[in-house]
């Protein structure tokens, strides 16, 4: 018997449009395999008359009032894809306070406000899931929680920013300058108009902060990680490294060593002999080393890998 | 989307609010850059200058490419001395991933019983 779950969504930008498309395209399969009908009851947007990349299903209410979604007594699950900080946090808090389960991919918010949102969700006996906040298409958080439940993770090392990896890969492959590679990434829709968070290592840092919680149970701060970005890396360095047996990658690392956790976000030289060195373009890869399983590598598209190109 | 499915199932099974990361620790956090490790150096400094730095600093440097050199494991102090000698902006030092030489763990002191002759 199929049961219906009422879903509300906050935001209808690139990510939100993708969610609407997936909900529509996968509806039959979800019903057949899960016995669940996900009904998109309402979507809150900033501007009601802004142009949309998708057409909402018949019966979905479009509103410019977040409160009407997060307080709607019929809505059971709220998907937050606004991508802001303060507004998104206030909306998630309101949703949790009204007993909704919340799904978000907002890594900036989870990295900085995660503990208090999780505490609220626990008090309200609601779910707060954010799998897509790290490494987009790789279900790494649930894997760390479930598959390593009886294991001890010793190290996580990840290429978890598709924009930076695209730029470094292009500089290595074509000899393009940093500025040229960034411009190409922007034309291809893989970099924002303001790429600061991606190229400064801040986005990678937020993701490492979340990964560390799941891998080691340890919260990290930006000041502990002190991220270094890729803006000072030259194409000559990338190409000479590649010719000599290394690939330059923006790598997030956290390693447990004699009861201490060592961490870093920085461009490093990854030996060609390691599978991580072969993660190119907008692909992401997370290598996990654990006591029982040993070394594992999880790869897949990052969150921006299927982002449509920015109109020029 | 998988999160939405999981949340939907938990709602229907009335098990929501139970799936939180149980992993909690309070570990001392250190910067990986403060551990000895090997580096790739990119510099146009003369080879002789680099060799002199290496000899003075008691480490080795091997040329890998036109202006690319691989160092042996360097402590943060050795790296700082090297970059200071070559001049800031004259060298880019990229850590070689997974080349870290971890400090030896502090072993508990060994205590042995001492037999005393009591007369």
From TrEMBL, chain A:
Annotated ranges, domain Aspartate/homoserine dehydrogenase NAD-binding: 11-131
PROSITE patterns registered for this protein in UniProt: HOMOSER_DHGENASE (PS01042)
Protein keywords: Amino-acid biosynthesis, Methionine biosynthesis, NADP, Oxidoreductase, Threonine biosynthesis
Record GO terms (molecular function): homoserine dehydrogenase activity
Homoserine dehydrogenase catalytic domain location: 139-306
Catalytic activity: L-homoserine + NADP(+) = L-aspartate 4-semialdehyde + NADPH + H(+)
Pathway assignment: Amino-acid biosynthesis; L-threonine biosynthesis; L-threonine from L-aspartate: step 3/5; Amino-acid biosynthesis; L-methionine biosynthesis via de novo pathway; L-homoserine from L-aspartate: step 3/3
EC number: 1.1.1.3
Superkingdom to which the source organism belongs: Bacteria
PANTHER family attached to this UniProt entry: HOMOSERINE DEHYDROGENASE (PTHR43331)
Similarity section: Belongs to the homoserine dehydrogenase family.
Name of protein: Homoserine dehydrogenase
Organism the protein comes from: Lactiplantibacillus nangangensis
């Amino acid at each position: 018997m199929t049961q219906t779950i009422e879903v509300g969504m906050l935001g209808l930008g690139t990510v939100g449009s993708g969610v609407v498309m997936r909900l529509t395209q996968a509806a039959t399969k979800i019903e057949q395999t899960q016995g669940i009908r996900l009904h998109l009851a309402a979507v809150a947007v900033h501007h009601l008359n802004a142009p949309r990349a998708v057409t909402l299903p018949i019966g979905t209410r479009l509103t410019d009032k977040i409160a009407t979604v997060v307080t709607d007594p019929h809505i059971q699950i709220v998907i937050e894809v606004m991508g802001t900080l303060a507004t998104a946090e206030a909306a998630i808090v309101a949703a949790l306070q009204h007993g909704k389960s919340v799904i978000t991919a907002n890594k900036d918010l989870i990295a900085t406000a995660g503990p208090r949102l999780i505490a609220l969700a626990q008090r309200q006996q609601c779910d707060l899931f954010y799998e897509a906040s790290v490494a987009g298409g790789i279900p790494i958080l649930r894997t760390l929680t479930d598959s390593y439940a009886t294991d001890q993770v010793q190290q996580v090392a990840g290429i978890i920013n598709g924009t930076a990896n695209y730029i470094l890969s292009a500089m290595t492959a074509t000899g393009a300058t940093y500025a040229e590679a960034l411009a190409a990434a922007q034309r291809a829709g893989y970099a924002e108009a303001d790429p600061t968070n991606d190229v400064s290592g801040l986005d990678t840092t937020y993701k490492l902060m979340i990964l560390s919680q799941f891998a080691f149970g340890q919260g990290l701060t930006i000041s502990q990680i002190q991220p270094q970005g890729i803006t000072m890396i030259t194409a000559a360095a990338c190409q000479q490294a590649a010719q000599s047996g290394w690939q330059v990658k923006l790598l997030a690392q956290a390693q447990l060593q004699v009861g201490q956790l060592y961490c870093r976000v920085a461009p490093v030289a990854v030996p060609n002999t390691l599978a991580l060195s072969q993660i190119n373009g907008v692909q992401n890869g997370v290598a996990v080393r654990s006591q029982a399983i040993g070394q594992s590598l999880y790869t897949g598209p990052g969150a921006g890998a299927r982002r449509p190109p920015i109109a020029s | 989307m998988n999160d939405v499915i999981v949340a939907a199932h938990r709602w229907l099974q009335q098990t929501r609010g139970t799936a939180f990361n149980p992993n909690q620790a309070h570990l001392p956090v250190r910067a990986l850059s403060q551990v000895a490790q090997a580096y790739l150096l990119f510099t146009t400094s003369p080879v002789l200058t680099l060799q002199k730095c290496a000899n003075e600093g008691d480490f080795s440097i091997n040329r890998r490419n036109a202006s690319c050199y691989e160092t042996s494991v360097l402590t943060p102090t050795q790296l700082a001395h090297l970059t200071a000698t070559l001049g800031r902006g004259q060298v880019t030092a990229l850590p070689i991933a997974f080349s870290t030489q971890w400090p030896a763990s502090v072993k508990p002191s060994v205590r042995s019983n001492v037999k005393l002759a009591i007369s």
